[in-house]
Amino acid sequence: MKQGLKQLPKQTLALTPLLQNQIGLLSLSGNEIRKSLNQVVKEYCEESRSKEYLLFKDLVFEDRFINFLETRNQPQEYQKEIPQEKDIKATLLDQLYIENLEKYEILIGEYLIDSINKDGRLDNNLDYKDISLFVYESLNFKVGKKEIKKILFIIQNFEPVGCAYRTVLESLLIQTDHLEIRNEEKKIIKRFLQDFSKEKIDVSNLSPQIKKVLQKLKFNPCIQLNLDEVSYVRPDLVAIENSNKLEVTLNDPFLIESLTQKIKTFVKSSSSKKKKEALSFINGFERRQKTLLEVGKFIVSKQEKHLLDSKALTPLTLKQIATFIGISESTVSRIVKSKYLQLPKKNIPLSSLLEKKVTLRSSEGKEVSPSQLKKLIKTIIQIENKSEPFSDQRIQKFLKEKYKVSVARRTVAKYRQEAHILPSRQRT
């Protein structure tokens, strides 16, 4: 007689509202997470003028403005080629040298141009006192902020217009001055930009004509990326090639390294009844960023040959990532959703680097992805006797014997069809 099974009580994790909210942060896109973080910043840190705070506010302004101009959302499979950057410093220096400037002014200009980042922004750590000291030590000539700002203004109006900006708004305002439109229209656009940056405007009242003009402005003057590029996506991660290896970093590392610490300090000192909720959000945000970086690094390390040498994708599943990092598959699924990776030449969805394996579970042979299997099938068919082409069953046997790849016959048929290869009876 079978022994009766005693049903054990099901154990569940009690999810508090705060914990549910933290889990929800994992699925948010970069745009959405910055929008949520900005709500906390506005409530607790509006008086802060730190470098990190100003940079973050610039990102939020950029997000809002691009969302305002966009006409459609990008599909998850979206990939965006990155325009090749020009040698912007050489371009600006060429224009500096043909200006009718004094020697000390050229020296200031060289210093400023050398302090421009790839995105056209002036280095946020630039100190005017350092420039003054540099000019004095070089020419024994004293200069102050007034002289430095004069040269900065000249550089900002070189081609491409708007480089060497300190804030995105500053660049857009300078670009507006160079638009071929009436002065009245320029005033309207400038007023709109200033009000929009302070979130003090109703965009629904903006005329289609003005919106069309706004799309002529550029967020990155260095690569001339127009704002009418509806495919704009700000990547969450950046992969930089170094000695034939890809190093992955967060696109906005300051968000987790120092800005969040400053926000926590403001929140903790607040008497707000919602500060517990705000601190929970910040903690969840930090975990999100940390997990995103760990997952991104692991995925890129597994797909490095594909990314650098155009090799086929390596089979990589949510379970493999979860096991390696020590988190749940659902967490991995959430963290790769709507996240983008910037490569040296293009932006791609992080999820596009995941590739299921098509080999049999019980097999101890080599794992292959769909793209790898299609390549192997093509290779096998290239060596077949054209008068006696291989059947799917023969291809299956060949895969196992020569390549140690175990797949079902129907799997061979499926991926043969996807590779646009006819069945054996039609290849004679």
Q: Label the structural class.
A: alpha+beta
Shape: globular
Strand content: 5-15%
Radius of gyration: 28 Å
Termini Cα gap: 63 Å
Give the averaged pLDDT, no decimals: 84
Helix content: 40-55%
Q: State the helix count.
A: 18
For the secondary structure, the number of strands is: 7
Give the helices and strands as they follow along the chain: HHHEHHHHHHHEEEEHHHHHEEHHH
Largest sheet: number of strands, sense, barrel closure:
5 strands, mixed
Spatial strand sequence of the major β-sheet: 1-7-6-4-5
Number of domains: 3
Low-confidence stretches: 1-13, 225-230
Q: What key phrases describe this protein's structure?
A:
428 residues; Arc Repressor Mutant, subunit A; five-stranded mixed sheet; two-stranded antiparallel sheet; 52% helix; 6% strand; globular
Brief summary:
The chain has helices at about 15-25, 30-45, 50-70, 90-95, 105-115, 130-140, 145-155, 170-175, 185-195, 210-215, 255-270, 275-300, 305-310, 320-325, 330-335, 370-380, 390-405, 410-420, and strands at about 80, 220, 225, 235-240, 245-250, 340, 345-350. By secondary structure, the chain is an alpha+beta fold.
Characterization of this structure:
This protein is an alpha+beta fold and 428 residues long. The chain folds into three domains: 38-45 and 234-353, no CATH class; 88-223, no CATH class; 370-426, Arc Repressor Mutant, subunit A (Orthogonal Bundle), CATH 1.10.10. 52% of the residues lie in helices and 6% in strands. The chain has helices at residues 17-25, 30-44, 51-69, 88-97, 103-114, 128-139, 145-156, 168-177, 183-197, 208-214, 254-268, 275-302, 304-309, 318-325, 329-336, 370-382, 392-403, 409-418, and strands at residues 80-81, 218-220, 225-226, 237-242, 245-250, 340-342, 346-349. Helix 8 packs antiparallel against helix 9 (183-197), helix 11 packs antiparallel against helix 12 (275-302) and helix 14 (318-325) packs across helix 15. The relative contact order is 0.10. Mean pLDDT is 84; it is low at 1-13 and 225-230.
